[in-house]
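Two records follow; treat each independently.
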Amino acid sequence: MEQSSLARRTSKNTKQLALWTGLWLVSLALVAFGPTLLWDYHKVMSVIAICVNLLMGVKMIMANKHHLEGLDELQQRIHLEAMALSLGCSMVFGAVYGLLDAVKLFDDVSNPANGLFVNPSNILFVMGLTYGLGMFLAHRKYA
């Protein structure tokens, strides 16, 4: 009975997390592409889109916290180890990445000819990769 209850709770929490993550991604795309494609850089519309994105982000964070609290201890430990790896790698990468322009290692970091773009999405990419790697390694460690 306990396992069935845990499975139902995890399934419900995972669906809620997927819903809020999807809504956040849609609202992020709206912030990114809406000004050029939908409302011709109208400031009020952009501010509204940003506010909606922030609200969806908060709801996603709350759903993620609820999801993690509903997991058993081993699952929580696996996620904790993956998050620790992701945070550490993202912080180190982000700090160096943010300094590339300041140390003038390249003429212009944002110049596409250099092959580097100072863009926060690159840090998100590193976070996603290291979180996935952390989940894989922690599952191997504990399974």
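The next record belongs to a different protein.
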Amino acid sequence: MSGVKPLELIKVRSEGKFNIHLITSKKDLDSISAIGELKSKIAGRVGKEELVYSVPSKDGVTVIAKFKEESETSYRFQAARALGAKLRKIVNSEKVAMATLVSLTADRADTLAVIEGMVLSNYQFNAYKTGDKGKPNKFTKLNVLAAGVSEGDLQELSGVAVGTFAARDFVNEPVITLTATEWSKRMVALGKATGFKTTTFDKKKIEALKMGGLLGVNKGSVEPPTFNILEWKPKNAKNKKPIVLVGKGVVYDTGGYNIKTVQMAQMKSDMGGGAAVSGAIAAIAANKLPVHVIGLIPATDNRIDGKAIVADDVLKMMSGTTVEVLNTDAEGRLILADALHYAKQYNPELVIDLATLTGAAARITDYYGIAMCADKTDTTALKESGERVYERLMEFPMWREFHDAIKSNVADIKNIGGAAGGNITAATFLHHFTDYPWIHLDIAGPSFMTADVDYRLKGGTGVGVRLLYDFIKHTYA
């Protein structure tokens, strides 16, 4: 684990030595004495575009900042977060530990978005770097002098960041240290730190439950699988039936005997769905949302040895459904099938599964958003959350023809369809194991970055944590 904590956020009443003034118009410059004779020059640059202007002095540094004006709410918040990421970079370049954000005229939500961008972009994964390369960012504390922003707002933002950082850590950790068993131990530790309960089933219990999908994918591994149940159930929960979150937990995916020929170097990220579920429940627990939430995370790697399954094998799922395996690299849906069936016992209000499931989804959305399918389930509120946190959702239809595409001649269904609609046929496969309101999120595109883009840093992004938290807060809390 990186061990890097989110920025400490403190509400203050006065400025410090390193001050960032978030302005909304030229008039805001009148109250900033530190800019002196540069006022007119800075005023000439204030417009609709982003502005960042640093003014050093013998007493410290003053930064004037304004994010790009956008008419749509989602783009406005995103512009604010992007500005926050840029400001965080400036603070770190000055090698100071503490800065003060002064925001007296900006809307509360806009100010919080700037702070969020600063917090999320200050993440680091330095667990395996040595010497100076392993040194953490010096910037560790952000003081906030802002109209309308409360200590509770800052605490909530910090709680969500804790969950996001945990998800990023899980994805960034290599499989040589993060086996399924070790990941389970770290989820237990995360639960103890934030307040949720974790129950882990070992291989013997998984065999007793006849989870054929999880056991089948695990057959080629020397490491045993685990099945993890995360639960946050406060006494004041407003929902009578739980919200269940299901996350794909393939800690490393070689593709099995249908071995991957490209991008295997990123396959530690194939547990991004499970990471998001654990991070979301950590955020919910840390902020004590009055909602009963359960997370289900089947975990294993997908390896090759003499016992590994091959194409043409038939597996019997926990539900009793038989599945013809035509591609061992379509393994995520096999372990999710058992988890989705297991979820039935909770009589859930709603089930949302998250998975880095298909290259088809990644090719459609890239890192810009998430591919979504749902079966007669209202997705409006989730889409609204996606716009707010900028983890946007693109919904695809589940037409009858896609169900026909996974019919098998030798078993009940097969684990892949045809060449078309790969992300949809994967979703229709999962649909066979549900009998409740259900939404499927394929996060293959935005779960892992190959380069920094604002606050979304190279490596695991923790995508899904902020989306689920926002959705559950606004819909059920």
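Discussion point: The chain has two domains: 8-149, 159-476. How would you locate this feature using only the token line?
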